[in-house]
Amino acid sequence: MQIQQHALPDISSGTVRELRSFHYGSFAQSGQGRKVYIQSSLHADEIPGMLVNYYLREMLEQYEKIAAIAAEIVLVPVANPIGLAQDIQGTAFGRFDLATGINFNRGYRHLTPHLLPLLESKLGADANENVKLIRQQALAVLREWQPDTATDHQKKILQTLAVDADIVLDLHCDNQAVMHLYTGTPLADDCMPLAAYLGAQAVLVSVLSGDDPFDESCSRHWWELAQHFGTATPIPNACMAITVELRGETEVSHEVAQADALAIINFLRHAGYLRGKAPALPQALCQPTPLEGVEPLRAPHAGILVFTRETGDYIEAGEKVADIVDPVSARMTPVLATVSGILFARVARRYATHGMRIAKIAGPVAYRTGNLLSL
After folding, report:
1. CA atoms within 13 A on the CB side of 4
2. Do 209 and 136 contact (CB within 8 A), yes or no?
3. What is the pLDDT of residue 28?
4. Which parts of the chain have pLDDT scores under 50?
5. Please, are residues 135 and 163 in contact by the beta-carbon 8 Å criterion?
6. Which of 195, 256, 323, 331 is the most buried if burial means most Cβ atoms within 10 Å?
7. What is the Cα–Cα distance from 74 to 198, expressed in whole angstroms?
8. What pLDDT does residue 299 have?
9. Secondary structure of residue 274 in the 3-state scheme
10. What are phi and psi of 288, to 5 degrees?
């Protein structure tokens, strides 16, 4: 195992921060070999992924001892040291950069417009050679990026570490939720083995979710380049990037984290990045549904939030999910679903402001447009 230290610019005089990446297996020249990249807690107040990464490190050390790693596997257990240090009077504030107000999982480099002029007339009929060239040029584009802030510099480091990987797993969690995944629509079928091993109850897919989140910054340019250059120039979806939502933010236990780490290990064995026969693929608990089909339920007015259904429940259109109770007027208003699907996430707060997003249902029919992710 090799540890790499990536210095971040000083935010203020007398402060020093760095990212650390842990590299296991065979280290090929950048862009030239098989590679897996896994990071956790990009939203720094989402802790379950850090513990999963702890157990992944422990497991990968054992695989390395028996020379059973058939790729380079890169782990970044703390993907956001800037956000991890943000604490406001005892409350962690790791989702948004305090300096700019920008979500730490937004604003990564959209590579396609930078790559197109670099690739014109250079790609050919050999898909493998095309993949190598695209990865080399993507790394060159990122090296030339001159960030203005420490947070953007952190984004550059993370995207550079991941952009030449075959598989990218970004470990997150929701407030209260069942296991669920986000990925690109062209990757929907390929991500289902991971969904099966993890026991995911929703897989949400989109071609463009909006605002350039980390996973799309690693995978989106592959299908966009393929569409631009056409079938005569074979360009596979060479990066399967997936955001893994590890249930709720308080579900931090050794048993759960070990099980999730083992599920990821089994997936990597199944995909051939670790040697050894993988356990039989479990039956998937869901099928991919469009992110455009997710219904975000909102509070119709302010009040006490009383959920009447649990995460993981199947909700029929028209069914009640929660009540909002105004403690002053004594008005109680039911919150009804308008689509049928799995109630896969809900907020942890029990007081809702007017219009607050309180829960999400994975519906099978696309009906939304625009930016599809929550803030």
Report:
1. 14
2. no
3. 54
4. none
5. yes
6. 195
7. 20
8. 98
9. strand
10. -60, 140
What would you measure as the largest C-alpha separation in the chain, in angstroms? 70
pLDDT for 319 equals: 98
pTM, two decimals, is 0.97
Contact 183, 191 (CB under 8 A): yes
Residue linked to tokens 């979806």: 237
Rounded Cα gap, residues 284 and 188, in angstroms: 13
Q: What share of the chain is helix, strand, coil (3-state, %, to 5)?
A: 30, 30, 45
SS (H, E, C) the chain: CEEEEEEECCCCCCCCEEEEEEEEECCCCCCCCCEEEEEECCCCCCCHHHHHHHHHHHHHHHHHHCCCECCEEEEECCCCHHHHCCEECCEECCCECCCCCCECCCCCCCCHHHHHHHHCCCCCCCHHHHHHHHHHHHHHHHHHCCCCCHHHHHHHHHHHHHCCCCEEEEEEEECEECCEEEEEHHHCCCCHHHHHHHCCCEEEEECCCCCCCHHHHHHHHHHHHHHHHCCCCCCCCCCEEEEEEEEECCCCCHHHHHHHHHHHHHHHHHCCCECCCCCCCCCCCCCEEEHHHEEEEECCCCEEEEECCCCCCEECCCCEEEEEECCCCCCEEEEECCCCEEEEEECCCCEECCCCEEEEEECCCCCCCCCCCCC
Identity of residue 357: R
| Residues whose CB falls within 8 Å of the CB of residue 317, separated by 6 or more in sequence, listed in order | 337, 338, 339, 340
Q: Which of 199, 202, 204 is nearest to 267 (CA)?
A: 199
Check residue 346 and give its pLDDT. 98
With a CB cutoff of 8 Å and minimum separation 6, the contacts of 97 are: 82, 83, 103, 104, 149, 151
pLDDT of res. 15: 86
| DSSP letter assigned to residue 293 | G
181's tokens: 């995944």
Spatial distance between the Cα atoms of 53 and 77, rounded to a whole number of angstroms: 6
Quote the pLDDT of residue 26: 79
Cα 82 to Cα 155: distance, rounded to the nearest angstrom: 11
Strands 167-174 and 240-248: parallel
